[in-house]
Amino acid sequence: MKTLVLGLGNPILSDDAVGIRVVEELEGKVDQKEVTLVETTVAGLDLLGFLTGYDRAIIIDAIQTVGGQAGRIYRLDPEALDFTRHSASPHDVNLATALELGKRLELSLPQQIIIFAIEVADASTFSEECTPEVRRAIPACVEMIIQEINGEPRSITV
Hints:
Elements: E1 3-8, H1 18-26, E2 35-40, H2 47-51, E3 56-63, E4 73-76, H3 95-104, E5 112-119, H4 132-149
Helix pairs in contact: 1-4
């Protein structure tokens, strides 16, 4: 199964970099003949170019929820994001909207998309370091992704 692991974020905005940091930690821990590791700062429609041609995609990104606990890891399916779809402008399209457009355009998107969203404390301070709670969640998320790749997904929240 051709798998993409895609870490999203901004490496200079503290916890927003968590997706990128997880992919960095996966280097050398997965068979890169079977798994493609990609870090990116792009969002919206630009993500479709990364996803095309894979059987499975695992996306890692930061999330902020009302009352969320920093460092908590959520394993989500794209349907969990359905309520966030919007397209006020082609320059402001979120992941759910981009995936819906990709389907409507009949792009060769992965049949299986899994999202690991890590609750963040600070996604706006200029820093190349994640907060301690988020930093502690990175190894746990790495382990969850390795299990997912090996066909042993765990439905846990850290």
